Amino acid sequence: MIDTELVAAKTVVSAKGDGPTVDVSGAAGRVFLVTLDITEIIEQESLDVSIYGSADGAAWGAKPAAAFPQKFYRGESPLLLDLTAHPEVKFVRAHWEVARWGRGVEAPMFEFGVRLKEIPADVLREVAAEAKALA
Predict the structure, then answer these.
(1) Which residues contact 26 (CB under 8 A, 6 or more apart)?
(2) What's the average model confidence in pLDDT over 24-31?
């Protein structure tokens, strides 16, 4: 069961960057819950966080496998990362972009973390059965 950080909690950034490479090849399932937790910000700035996949941990896709909506405030946001249609993806990593506008300090500043947690197959089956029953 994979439960790890794509970006360590309370990481402070002021420019775009990438988190460490995480091996997901040992995951029993291919569906993950990714949680973005923004703990500190300054006003008039934005944060874009996306998740990229790779077959070898060196060459990364041109498009993200998943992306959070642009964020402007503190808080926690969940995102489903479903790699079932991408069996070639064995590694993932987070990428972030930051922007700032307006008065005051010109450099953006975000303190955040990104967590990756595998969703067990039995939970997925249960949710699918409930959804089918409601349809």
Answers:
(1) 2
(2) 91
Q: Which two tokens stand for residue 34?
A: 């990714």
Residue 89's φ and ψ, nearest 5 degrees, are: -75, 115
Non-local CB neighbours of 56 within 8 Å, separated by 6+ positions:
90, 91
pLDDT value of residue 31: 95
Give CA angle at 51 (59, 100), nearest 5°. Answer: 110
What pLDDT score was predicted for residue 79? 97
pTM of the model: 0.91
Q: From residue 59, how far is each of 63, 71, 96 by CA, in Å? A: 12, 27, 17
Tokens (6 digits) for 28 = 């029993």
